[in-house]
Amino acid sequence: MADTWLVIGLGNPGPRYELTRHNVGQLVVDELAARRGEAFRSHRANARVAETWLRPGAAKIVLAKPNTFMNVSGGPVAGLANFYGIPPERIVVVHDELDIPFDTIKLKIGGGHGGHNGVRDVAKALGTPDFPRVRVGIGRPPGRQDAADWVLDPFSAADRKVLPILVSDAADAVEQLVEEGLLAAQQKHHAPRV
After folding, report:
1. For labelling alongside 27, which of 8, 35, 57, 136 has CA 20 to 30 A away?
2. 40 marked among binding-site residues
3. HEC per residue, 68-95
């Protein structure tokens, strides 16, 4: 399984959180599954998974959404990595990022967690922070609103108009990262939007 990748969409379970900023990672993984006509099924690692291919003849990808809350995402991620025999360098974690403006995507491998408890827990469970990340910008809250409340709020009406494009672009970034590598994906997705 040398060419299998695990793509994790971080978020919180249940309808209450489905369209909140914190769940944008799961929206991206949903988009990747929808593009391939795949449905998620339960996995014993306490996650929902869809096994598919990037495209015919290309890398196999396991799309996954942990059933746990964001701050304890590491257990399911490590369980899936062990089950499929996938090393950290082929585990792509897609997550929301406060420190990036809304409608912006950044990619990196490794580094700190930037206060993101889901990323922190995944790094702890994997025993390394050195995994690829697709960071989907949600921006900082306006005024004095607490960041913890902001991430659990639904997207604003204005943001919801742009959200499908942002999710599609982030899904494109995942596909390019897997197929062409980090640098090619960064060069395309870090460029200013026109």
Report:
1. 57
2. no
3. CCHHHCHHHHHHHHHHHCCCHHHEEEEE
CATH number of the domain bearing residue 54? 3.40.50.1470
4: confidence class by pLDDT, cuts 50, 70, 90: very high
pLDDT digits (tens, 9 = 90+) for 78-87: 999 999 999 9
Catalytic annotation on 95?
no
Domain count, the chain: 1
Q: What is the pTM for the complete model shown?
A: 0.95
Residue matched to tokens 């995942």:
174
User: 194 in a domain, yes or no?
Assistant: no
- With 0-12 / 13-18 / 19 or more C-beta atoms within 10 angstroms meaning exposed / middle / buried, residue 159 is middle
Task: Find out whether 12 is annotated in a ligand binding site.
Answer: no
Q: Is residue 140 part of a domain?
A: yes
Tell me if 117 is assigned to a ligand binding site.
yes
Residue 144 belongs to domain spanning: 4-189
- Residue among 22, 43, 116, 189 flagged as catalytic: 22
Is 67 part of any known ligand binding site?
A: no
